[in-house]
Amino acid sequence: MRYFLLIYALVVAVIVGIAGCRGSMSRKPPIEIFPDMDRQLKLRPQQPNAFFPNGISSQPPVPGTVRRSQPIQTAAGPVLPFEDAPVNTGRLPGTTNFVELNPLAVTGALLQRGRERFGIYCAPCHGPMGDGNGVTRKLGMSVVANLHDQRIVEMPDGEIFNTITHGKNLMQGYAAQIPVEDRWAIVAYVRVLQRSWLGTLEELPGDMRTALERQP
Ligand code: HEC
C-alpha cells in the first residue's frame, strides 16, 4: 500500500508536470509529446512553394474538373443552385411572395422537355391533359386536382413550382425526383395545357379550323 501511494503520487506529479505546462504563459516553446502531429509536412494555402512551376501551393483545378453544382441558365443570367433566387425557390428573394413568371427562357425545347417530364411524373395522377383523370383516379384516388380549375389557371408560376417541390396535402413533393430546371419545364408545359384547354375555335388558323369543323 505504501508503494502504491508513492507510485500514485509520482504518476500524478509526472502528468501534472507535463500536461500542466501546456497552455501556460511562457517564452519557451511548450513540450510537444507528439511533435509530428503539431508540425506536419504540408502545404498551406496561398503559401509560395517552389515545387510547382507556377510557384504557388494551391493549384487550380485540373482542366475538365466537374463542379459540384452547375449554374442554372435563367432568362436573367446564370444562378447557382444554392442562391436565394426565384429559380430555386419560386419566390421573390427575401419575401414569401411567389414569382409571377417562369424565370427560365421558355423555348420550344423547354416545352418539349416539360411535356415529356409531365408525362412521366404528373400524368399518372393528373392525366395527360391535366384534367385530373389519370390512372390513379380509376384506382380510387378521388381528389386529384384538375389543373384547369380557374384557381390553378390564375396561380403564379412560382406557386405551381412550389407545389411540385414541396407537394400539397395528398400530393407529395417531387424535389428529390425532378431537378429544378425540369420543374420549371413542367410548369411551362402546364401553362400550355391550360392555354389549349381555354382556346376557342376562332383562335385557330383558317385551314386547321375547317379541318376540325369537318370532324363529326
Ligand atoms: C400521386 C398522385 C399525384 C402526382 C404524381 C402529382 N400530383 Fe399534383 N396533386 C395530386 C393531388 C391528390 C392533388 C390535390 C391535393 C389537395 O389539394 O388535396 C394535387 C394537386 C396539385 C396542384 C394544385 C395545388 C393546389 O394549390 O391546390 C397542382 C398545381 C399540381 N398538383 C401539380 C402537379 C404536377 C405539376 C405534378 C407533376 C410533377 C403533379 N402534380 C404530380 C396528386 C398528384
Task: Please explain how this structure is put together.
With 216 residues, the protein is mostly helical. It has ten helices and four strands, in the order ααββααααααββαα. It has a two-stranded antiparallel sheet with strand order 1-2. 42% of the residues lie in helices and 5% in strands. It has helices at 2-19, 35-38, 86-89, 108-121, 123-126, 135-138, 150-153, 157-166, 180-198, 206-214, and strands at residues 72-74, 77-79, 167-168, 171-172. The protein has a domain at 80-199: Orthogonal Bundle (Cytochrome Bc1 Complex, Chain D, domain 2). The site of heme C has 21 residues, from helix 5, helix 8 and helix 9.
In short:
One of its GO terms (molecular function) is metal ion binding. By secondary structure, the chain is mostly helical.
Please describe the structure with a list of short key phrases separated by commas or semicolons.
216 residues, mainly alpha, Cytochrome Bc1 Complex, Chain D, domain 2, two-stranded antiparallel sheet, two-stranded antiparallel ribbon, binds heme C, Cytochrome c, electron transfer activity, Cyt_c-like_dom, heme binding
